[in-house]
Specification:
Blueprint (H helix, E strand, L loop, with lengths): L2 H24 L6 H8 L3 H7 L3 H22 L5 H15 L2 H13 L1 H14 L17 H22 L5 H18 L17
Length: 204
């Protein structure tokens, strides 16, 4: 990657983190593009060049997580569900931007409705023919399968909250993975439970 590309990525990250910090401190609805530009020390048009709308700031996290899920599954097709979760979590602990994770969590706690809206927006934007995980076991299934999918997503959220808070350890990850294994064994939920879908109560 050349110097120009690295500079653009650095500027983009700075703008993103500035926006997330403002959303956490003063609220999503009260923050303007002008506020973000001032905090980032760039022109408003520069902000809009990287993030055309305010919603793009809060869809950044679920979009990047969804893309990484797909990438990992494509690299390891046919991997068992619990092994896939373990792989995904190890990858996150090794590669996540922890400052972005912490600010995203702070933003979500301060603006829970906006965080939920971001999940729905990501699902809406996904093209029908885009790569995806195997069909969710809880999609259109019975109540037990639906509960299993929701429970797995809740455990996943706790895992990433642990990363953001700096509390995730090998022991904690192993314990959470054991919980996922138990849920999967009891309910039959699988890979696609991690990918938000409009049909899921957790995404509405």
């Amino acid at each position: 990657m050349g110097h120009r590309e690295r500079s653009k990525l650095k500027r983009r990250r700075h703008i993103l983190l500035s926006a997330l910090r403002l959303f956490a401190e003063q609220g999503y609805s009260r923050t303007t593009i002008g506020d973000i530009a001032e905090a980032s020390e760039v022109a408003p048009r520069t902000v809009s060049g990287y993030f055309p709308s305010k919603l793009d700031f809060v869809t950044e996290w679920p979009s990047s997580r969804s893309r990484r899920l797909i990438e990992l599954y494509q690299q390891h097709p046919g991997i068992a569900f619990v092994a896939f979760i373990d792989l995904y979590w190890h990858d996150a602990r090794e590669n996540l931007d922890r400052e972005e994770a912490a600010l995203t969590r702070a933003m979500a706690l301060a603006n829970p409705g906006i965080a939920a809206m971001a999940e729905v927006a990501v699902a809406h934007r996904r093209a029908p023919d885009a790569p995806h995980l195997p069909q969710r076991a809880d999609a259109g299934g019975d109540l037990l399968q639906q509960a299993g999918g929701a429970a797995v997503r809740a455990v996943d959220q706790v895992f990433f909250a642990g990363i953001a808070d700096g509390r995730m350890t090998d022991e904690a990850q192993a314990a959470l993975l054991g919980l996922v294994a138990s849920i999967a064994a009891e309910t039959g939920t699988g890979h696609g439970a991690l990918q938000p879908a409009l049909s899921s109560p957790a995404a509405s």
